[in-house]
From TrEMBL:
Protein name per Swiss-Prot or TrEMBL: Heme ABC exporter ATP-binding protein CcmA
Keyword Calcium recorded: no
Record keyword Translocase present: yes
Pfam families linked to this entry: ABC_tran (PF00005)
Keywords: ATP-binding, Cytochrome c-type biogenesis, Membrane, Nucleotide-binding, Translocase, Transport
InterPro entries to which the protein is assigned, alphabetical: AAA+_ATPase (IPR003593), ABC_transporter-like_ATP-bd (IPR003439), ABC_transptr_haem_export_CcmA (IPR005895), P-loop_NTPase (IPR027417)
PROSITE patterns: ABC_TRANSPORTER_2 (PS50893)
GO MF, one example: ATP binding
Residue ranges of every copy of the ABC transporter domain listed in the record: 4-230
Length: 233
């Protein structure tokens, strides 16, 4: 039974404190849905969870080990789907999936690609170059990618953007199948996705006004006067 948790996380983007004091916990088969207004930090949190962005404070652990101690090992266990579909325009859909599969060192790649194309109902597009795909078809291709190779954790940033209503149902079904195999899914969405009993993590509850945060962390206040001794250091 895998265990993925974060404690007392603070995230800074640029000079802005996005959220603070955020904790979460998930075990095999769990789903967490991230909610919050635009700019609340859902994408930032997913990037922190993926180890692509370091938190300003707090830590994230997989089975008790800080993910930053072994970023490569963490990335091998997860599939991250960001806003960008990252579909190469000159490669066919099949070759895009082949490239991703090769990067993950997948063995039976052709078999896995066929299964992923079927699951996303894009077999008919397998020889079409990325540049000719519609935005929904690109999103389906990106979703097919997360099915290739073994993974224990899906981090999905608005997975249904650009998809028609029927495809949203397919995404919910894929999530259910992954959870049934023991996977952990954390996703952001602005629509209601038919996922069974996800834990809701509302980022709006963790927004901290900058001024309040600077009072707790005066060392981060670039506008505060510093002593002559500190200036000399
Ligand atoms: N690369 C970056 N550099 C600096 N600030 C950033 C960067 N990316 C995002 N931000 C800022 O971080 C904050 C959180 O953005 P984020 O994209 O995580 O929010 P979100 O909840 O996913 O928003 P949305 O619902 O609009 O997708 C925003 O204020 C944004 O301007």
């Amino acid at each position: 039974m895998a265990d993925f948790s974060g404690s007392d996380l603070t995230c800074l983007r640029g000079e802005r404190l996005v959220f603070g004091g955020l904790s979460f916990a998930a075990r095999s088969g769990d789903a967490i849905v991230l909610r919050g207004r635009n700019g609340a930090g859902k994408s930032s949190l997913l990037r922190v969870m993926a180890g692509l962005l370091s938190p300003r404070a707090g830590q994230i652990c997989w089975d008790g080990e800080n993910i930053l101690e072994d970023r490569i090992g963490h990335q091998a266990r997860l599939q991250y789907l960001g806003h960008q579909d990252a579909v190469k325009p000159v490669l066919s859909v099949r070759d895009n999936l082949r490239l991703w599969g090769q990067m993950r060192g997948v063995d039976d790649l052709d078999g896995e690609i066929d299964a992923a194309l079927d699951a996303l109902d894009i077999h008919h597009l397998s020889r079409v170059a990325g540049r000719y795909l519609s935005s929904g078809q690109k999103r389906r291709t990106a979703l097919a990618r997360i099915l290739i190779g073994q993974s224990d954790l899906w981090l999905l940033d608005e997975p249904t953007v650009g998809l028609d209503r029927e495809s949203c149902g397919e995404v919910a079904r894929l999530i259910a199948e992954f959870r049934a195999r023991g996977g952990i899914v954390i996703y952001s969405t602005h629509i209601d996705l038919d996922v069974d009993a996800p834990t809701v993590l509302d980022l709006d509850e963790f927004a901290i006004p900058m001024v309040e945060w600077l009072m707790e962390h005066p060392e981060m206040d670039g506008s505060a006067p510093i002593s002559a001794q500190e200036a000399a250091q």
